[in-house]
């Protein structure tokens, strides 16, 4: 019995330490934890300020979508997290693309992931 408890504890520790900070952040976002933004700022300290300086037309929800795109969320995942439809997410991504002047032939998701 003691070995079972120790074994389960060791597995929990290994699982915690083997996850990357971005996986932990993604988990916080999926749970709807409001502390995800402070965690995001620790991992990507300049992203939000740079995205804001790239376009003054971005509002708070646009920036949240940019953060989700930076984290590698798909359109369906963003819809789930934001409790909106896939079509609404597609529309928001289109508006963000226009506000940031991202060319139509460039993938917005890839643009956000590589944006620094």
Automatic annotation (TrEMBL):
SUPFAM superfamilies: C-terminal effector domain of the bipartite response regulators (SSF46894). One of its GO terms (biological process) is regulation of DNA-templated transcription. Transmembrane segments: none annotated. Signal peptide: none annotated. One of its GO terms (molecular function) is DNA binding. This is HTH luxR-type domain-containing protein.
């Amino acid at each position: 019995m003691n070995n079972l408890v120790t074994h389960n504890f060791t597995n929990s520790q290994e699982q915690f330490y083997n996850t990357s900070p971005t996986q932990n952040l993604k988990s916080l976002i999926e749970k709807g934890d409001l502390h995800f933004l402070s965690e995001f700022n620790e991992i990507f300290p300049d992203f939000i300020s740079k995205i804001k300086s790239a376009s003054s037309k971005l509002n708070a929800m646009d920036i949240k979508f940019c953060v989700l795109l930076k984290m590698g969320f798909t359109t369906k995942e963003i819809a789930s997290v934001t409790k909106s439809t896939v079509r609404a997410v597609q529309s928001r991504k289109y508006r963000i693309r226009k506000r940031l002047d991202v060319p139509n032939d460039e993938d917005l998701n890839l643009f956000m992931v590589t944006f620094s």
